[in-house]
# Entry
Amino acid sequence: MTKRMPPPAGLSVHAKGHEKLKGHLAMLLFAVLIAGSFSFGGLAARHMDAEPLTLWRYMLTIAVMAALAFGVFRVPAVWPRQAWRFLVLGGLIALYMLTMFMALEFTSPVSTGAVFTLMPLLSAAFALPVLGQKTKPGVLAGLVIAAGGAVWVIFRGDVAAILAFDIGAGEMIFFVGVVCHALYVPLIRRFDRGEPAVAFGFWVTAGATA
# Structure
């Protein structure tokens, strides 16, 4: 019986490069959607209070996720193991969304977007106790620079305001939500039990709606 030859090393490198490109494109799409959410959220906040707006958003999302998970992808509709995981994750992401809409009643989409830029650095900080994952020095330096730019925008480029910590109510409210979102990211990996992604997303949405 002949041995099967391993694939050429170059092919493996190409595959890894393709996966990295897909990952970067996915993050770019995520950034575009998040940026748009602040602008559309600002428009919606003019016509409805934060609490009902957040609830209606999640009621619509749970219907869409249910159709995808149990209709399109035919995932078995069974009660998940350790359902408390989804209450924790859903609670964190619901607080994020609620504080975003609340903050947009006090401040601009640009300011809330700047506060959100702090999320990757906060998430890296949570990754160490939650996952035992250390951030590489080069990546950490990039996150710190991005956070510095966010602080500059939040304080309107005013050094005196930075030194006096003169920050608006909207930014403070949304910062609480960003902290929740930063903790949510590593907890997704910590709480993963091998469920299909669409089913996992549905149950997180159900927890957020609750």
In short: The radius of gyration is 20 Å. The chain has nine helices and no strands. The chain has a mean pLDDT of 85.
